[in-house]
Amino acid sequence: MYDDDVRIRPAKPEEAEDLSDIAWRSKSYWDYPVDVMNIFRDMLSIEQDFIENNPSYLIEHEDTDEKVGFYALEKKGDKWWLEHLWVLPDEIGTGLGGKLFLHACEMAETMGADELYIVSDPNAEEFYRHMGAEKIGEEQTEGMPERLLPVMRMKL
């Protein structure tokens, strides 16, 4: 659907605020209460040095340059993790998330990864399963120990 009118490109450190806005708006799509959203604030804030130190890519409309989503990878030990993958609410369900995820898998593979790990929002677990990832465990949400997050693995 979007092959000809969107592009994926490396994010620039000076776009950190734009990426934070995309993450915040995307997380808000799920109608979390304000107090819960405030717990997520640090996780959703993208810093310039994070972009400088981790492969980060955004997707934008070619005709308007509107940034509509992004992802970031992070290497922790010997494993590559999908640290972020967000699309604006109006773009959810359009295929952009899948396009970003496949790009992330390709990038991780070019960096030598055989697998890509994801700590998913519970609302996104089905998306990652649909893309081919499998659930391998759960972990608690920082600041909300009763909220368990699916830990997923995508074999590349």
Describe the structure.
This protein is an alpha+beta fold and 156 residues long. It has a single domain, classed as Aminopeptidase (3-Layer(aba) Sandwich), CATH 3.40.630.30. It is 33% helix and 35% strand. It has helices at 16-28, 34-44, 48-53, 96-110, 125-130; strands at residues 6-10, 56-61, 67-76, 79-87, 115-119, 134-141, 144-155. A seven-stranded mixed β-sheet has the order 1-2-3-4-5-7-6. Strand 4, helix 4 and strand 5 (115-119) form a beta-alpha-beta unit. The two termini are 24 Å apart.
List keywords for this structure.
7-stranded mixed sheet; alpha+beta; globular; 5 helices; single chain; 7 strands; 156 residues; Aminopeptidase
Q: What is the count of helical runs?
A: 5
Major β-sheet profile: 7 strands, mixed
Number of strands: 7
Shape: globular
GO molecular function: acyltransferase activity, transferring groups other than amino-acyl groups
InterPro entries: Acyl_CoA_acyltransferase, GNAT_dom
